[in-house]
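YM 10:42: Aspartate aminotransferase sequence, as discussed on the call
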Amino acid sequence: MFSNDNINIEILRKKAFNYRWAEVEEGVIPLTAADPDFPVAKEITATIKNYIEDGYFSYVPKEGLKEFREAIANALNSRKNEAVEANLVLPIDSAARGMYIIAETVLEEGDEVIIFDPVDYLFKQSTLRYKGVPVLFPSKLNEEGRIDLSNLREYVTDKTKMICLCNPHNPLGSLYSKEDLELILDIANENDLYIMNDEIWSDIVYSDGEFISILSLGNERNKKTLSVFGFSKSFGVAGLRVGCIYATDEELFNKIIEKSDVLTTAGGVSSLSQIAGMACVNDSYYWVEEFIKHLEKNRDYAVSRLNNMKGVTCHKPHATYLVFPNIAGTGYTSSEIAECLMKDAKLAIVPGTEKFFGEGANGHIRICLATSMEVLKEGLDRMEHWLNTNVM
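YM 10:58: structure's back
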């Protein structure tokens, strides 16, 4: 399933956008956006084909198909030790959209939001969209490869409204221990704070890591936790725009529904996307498990290669299919090295800039591993050759 022979570059050049094959010149290898180069599980395409056979594309329930909401709850509960109720799950057009809906529901102008730095830019952008004030908490890794939360309390003020949790963390690939999550919950409950809990990467965890959901610590303690999950990272269906928001408190969930615009039919998820989503969680986790085995080989190879390159150091992530090497030792900035690799080495990567991840990403680049070993090797060969030629 995950051999080089199963990658169709011709199709990717037509369909894979967002800094990927369809947006780079021919000859460039894009190890950029977190999107697999492989076709999806056959069950997903078969389910879509079967659904469209009768030719009907009617409206679906405003709050999503009942079977889809139940499938999501079953998957979350069985795989992540959560206690999610299907009636408190709202299908939405991507986890990213879910983050914006949460911010709109929770924030008033001037409210402070604690956002880890670096982290995916959507936390900051959704906060700013609804006139919140991002408060950046430095995401420094400890000796165990986890983010050091020892001074998190110091970032809470009387204006703080929400803590943003990316678990597993993008781009660091780190996980949170039970003690870490206990601390975040204690801080939130002591200060009556909401938690925006992004678990879109929670399926992509390696054999040397353990994912623990903050919701596994009990619904009573998570009454103000609003979670998002999506299907793009695990199942490769980013173009279908399908995800969900879920809560533990019915009153809060009803506010989410109100802000989502699903009741007016202006918001929501297409029928095809929900049908595909059911095929993902009901029938395709075998594909994800095999994908993780392939990714773990890619991760180990990439980390080893990167740590032997001039001016580069790279910690080993325990989750996600991303690596986030430090390139400060090369003498180039993140933007400079990205531009040079694109121009001279025909390799596209994501620079560790404020635009993508926040100020704390400076001196790093992000590389996506969701491709074949052959494509990854060629990309890293190009990077190493350029470094050997241009770094003293």
